[in-house]
Amino acid sequence: MPLHPRNLEELERQGTASIRALLSDSYYAGLGRGAPVLLRVSGVDPPSRADVEEWLRTKNDAERATTDRIQRRTLRWTIIAAVAAILAVVVPIGLWVLDRVREGSTLH
C-alpha cells in the first residue's frame, strides 16, 4: 500500500538517519514487514514497516546515485587538471629544446 502523503511528509521531515533509528526501536516499529511504524502523524493510519523500508531503499538509491555522479565529475576534472599540469611543463620544455635544435647549439 503506498504511503499516505502526510506519512511521506513526516518521513522526509525526519530524514533517513532518524527513520533508521526509529525502525530499530521496538516501541515505534514491530519486527514483521506488516508491522505498523509509529510516526505520530494524526488523522492517518501508521505506515507498514515494509512501506517505510521501501522508502528508505529509494532514498538510499537516490543518495548513492548522487554520490556516484559527483565522484565521476570530480574524477573527470581531476584528470583534466592533471593533463593540463603535465602539458604546462612538457610544452615549454619541448619548445625550448626545439628552439635549441633549430639554432644548432647543444643542449648543455
Beta-strand portion reads: under 5%
The radius of gyration computed from the alpha-carbon positions, rounded to a whole number of angstroms, is: 29 Å
Distance between the termini: 81 Å
How is the main sheet built?
A: none
Q: Tell me the overall shape.
A: rod-shaped
Alpha plus pi helix count? 2
Helix and strand sequence: HH
- Name the poorly predicted regions: none
Helix content: 55-70%
Describe this structure in words.
With 108 residues, the protein is an all-alpha fold. It has a domain of 75 residues. It contains 2 helices and no strands. The mean pLDDT is 92.
Features:
69% helix; 108 residues; 2 helices; mainly alpha
List the helices and strands and how they pair.
Blueprint: H1 5-24, H2 49-103
In a nutshell, what does this entry contain?
This protein has 108 residues and is an all-alpha fold.
